[in-house]
Design a protein that fits this description.
With 123 residues, this protein is mainly α. It is 92% helix and 0% strand. It is built from four helices and no strands. Helix 1 runs antiparallel to helix 2. The longest helix has 37 residues. The model has no long low-confidence stretch (mean pLDDT 80).
Length: 123
């Protein structure tokens, strides 16, 4: 990933330097020069957006390929920070997830009862 960002910075720096040198040696009217700069800036922006998209796809791909190791690193970090074992952390998270699921079921059930009651009142 570092090589991609270094390449992006080098391309961007090269583009900026090229535009600057071109402006110094190009004998054109101010209006023409500003139009040319604007066009080159738009091209540079498009290239930069494309590179950002490529880097974003690479980052997502890297994360997905290494997701399990990331999960282990996060759990290890949490274990060190809290002083609890990874197994205890997972058990606690699973317990909390069960509680959230139960609350969600009750909420959705109540929502349906309210919908049925509201529709029978209006009928």
């Amino acid at each position: 990933m570092k090589n991609g960002s270094d390449l992006l910075l080098a391309l961007l720096a090269g583009g900026v330097i090229g535009v600057g040198v071109g402006m110094l040696y190009a004998p054109r009217k101010g209006v023409d020069t500003r139009k040319k700069i604007a066009a080159q800036a738009q091209e540079a922006k498009a290239r930069l957006q494309q590179q950002v998209g490529v880097l974003e796809e690479q980052a997502i791909d890297y994360y997905l390929r290494n997701k399990e190791s990331w999960d282990i690193h996060v759990l290890s970090l949490l274990s060190r920070l809290t002083g609890h074992s990874i197994a205890d952390l997972i058990a606690t998270l699973e317990q909390k997830l069960g509680v959230v699921r139960e609350i969600s079921k009750k909420f959705h059930t109540k929502e349906r009862i309210i919908d049925v009651t509201a529709s029978s009142v209006t009928d």
